[in-house]
Specification:
The protein is an alpha+beta fold and about 300 residues long. The protein has three helices and 19 strands. The chain starts with a helix and ends with a strand.
Length: about 300
């Protein structure tokens, strides 16, 4: 007689557990700044936010971003909903495409990290605008006299062309110049190559995420000396981007660290695929060196 009641209770328990599991996902909502907010430098600013299913003893880390690039780390604050007297960097320029990003620190579920991005708002910095204007005027003033001096210069007389015979030395030098250069340094940081990869397609997809513990790493990714990811805050969430390789040379891909996080060095997990082949690698970087890989296209 008791069995049906036990069975009903079991179904009720399972239903309640499922309900709490679905509703237990952590969440962050930034209430200020909002769309229409104007921050004026050098005035101090504040942040207001709410959290759900996050322990109030834990913290949220905030960043000021512009066009998906980190402009300034605003700090990490306990989840009491308010942080005041935050000083903005004096070199931040005026503009209306600023956002604040809030990211949950030390999440219980590292695969579901609470994150919130505010709508665009504005920042006004009269001092920075004035400095920028002075620099532009100074640059223009320096260019004009230079052009005038160039006009006064007499053109050198053309020398008669003389035929030169090619020599084995010239041929050897030409071959040496055709060889691809291996980048050994970038902005005074030593580059060390850990692996050489090869793909059959020029168009590749790259995914990056924080390797190990999420600790506030901010990195850029460079391909052939050009930034393809700029000042990205690494989390367990995988960011994907697509690039095209140069099929006529070895392509160098390296990790550049903008900080050391809470647990140096900066370490990124990376998955590279061309649709038919995938490679998983780990790159490390600190403020003095960068790890890199060479990527070739098989013809």
């Amino acid at each position: 007689m008791k069995f049906p009641h036990i069975l009903s209770f079991s179904f009720l328990f399972i239903s309640l557990f499922s309900c709490f599991s679905q509703e237990g996902k952590s969440a962050i909502t930034i209430n200020y700044p909002t769309q229409g907010t104007v921050w004026s430098i050098p005035e101090l600013v504040k942040l207001e936010w709410d959290v759900e299913h996050i322990d109030t003893t834990k913290s949220t880390r905030f960043f000021l971003v512009r066009d998906e690039m980190v402009v300034q780390e605003l700090g990490s604050y306990k989840n009491n909903g308010l942080a005041e007297n935050i000083a903005l960097a004096k070199n931040i320029g005026s503009g209306d495409r600023y956002q604040v990003v809030g990211i949950e620190l030390f999440p219980n579920d590292k695969y579901n990290i609470a994150k919130f991005v505010t709508p665009f708002f504005s920042i006004v910095n009269a001092a920075s605008d004035a400095r920028k204007k002075e620099q532009e005027q100074a640059s223009q003033a320096a260019i004009v006299p230079k052009k005038k001096r160039e006009k006064r210069k007499k053109r050198p007389k053309k020398q008669p062309k003389t035929k030169t015979q090619s020599t084995p030395t010239a041929i050897t030098r030409s071959k040496e110049e055709a060889k691809p250069d291996i980048r050994e340094e970038f902005e005074d940081r030593k580059i060390s190559y850990t692996k050489e990869l090869s793909f059959t397609n020029e168009d590749i997809s790259i995914k990056i995420w924080d390797h190990g513990r999420q600790d506030g790493d901010i990195v850029s990714i460079f391909l052939n000396g050009n930034s393809i990811v700029s000042k990205h805050y690494l989390t367990y969430w995988k960011r994907e981007f697509k690039v095209t390789l140069d099929p006529n040379k070895s392509n160098d891909l390296f990790l550049y660290a903008h900080n050391l996080g809470d647990a140096p060095p900066n370490t990124v997990s990376m998955e590279i695929t061309d649709g038919t082949k995938s490679e998983n690698i780990i790159l490390n970087s600190d403020l003095e060196s960068c790890e890199a890989v060479m990527i070739r296209v098989k013809k």
